[in-house]
Amino acid sequence: MNDNLPRQLEAVRSCLAARYRGDHQRTVAIRAFLQSICDRHSSAGLGDPNLPTELCSGDEARYWQRLSEVLLCNEMLQVGLSLRPSRDGPDFLVELDGLRVWIEVICPQATGVPKDWLAPPRGEAIGFPHEALLLRWTAAIKERAQKLLGNAAGVKGYLDKGVVSPRDAYVIAVNGRLLRGTHFATITGISQFPFAVEAAFAVFCDLGFDASSIHDFALR
After folding, report:
1. What is the pLDDT of residues 90-99, one digit of tens each?
2. Which domain holds residue 213?
3. How many Å from the N-terminal Cα to the C-terminal Cα in the chain?
């Protein structure tokens, strides 16, 4: 039993109340939803003990990284998956039909993404920095892949440490929230496919191919 749990839960509630202020119906609903899933996340022992500190740090990158973990955890619990945290390995472990599935979550920062994309000047047209955004996706995937495989500097990954078995599945879950700016609920790549597809399958927009051709290529 975590004796600090009540204090941690109250810290998270206070943080969310300060971040999502007001009595507008939408704001109240968002605040209540986030409080409920954070409570369940911590009460079930699925959260990192540093969750309150990370959420309440005032650092946007740290906030969205931790919240991404909570949101994904909630989605998996909603469909009935049995989860357990991994203190010395990836963020979550799911055991499904005899297969162990490790899940590593990342919410990449907008390093190198133009500021006018993230906060567009009012009344001005802006370009779509698709290459910069795609680089953030590929960098995020590479970073989490190295946590599994190790890197050229000799740092061992989860495989060499024996945390993840070669027979296990390893999933990198990327949340692009920090890359879409303030005016878009979601964004897709220049190919009109999600950035996840472009990053994993190298699908790009080419005037010599129509959408159906790209789609067929991506499915092969």
Report:
1. 999 999 888 9
2. 60-219
3. 49
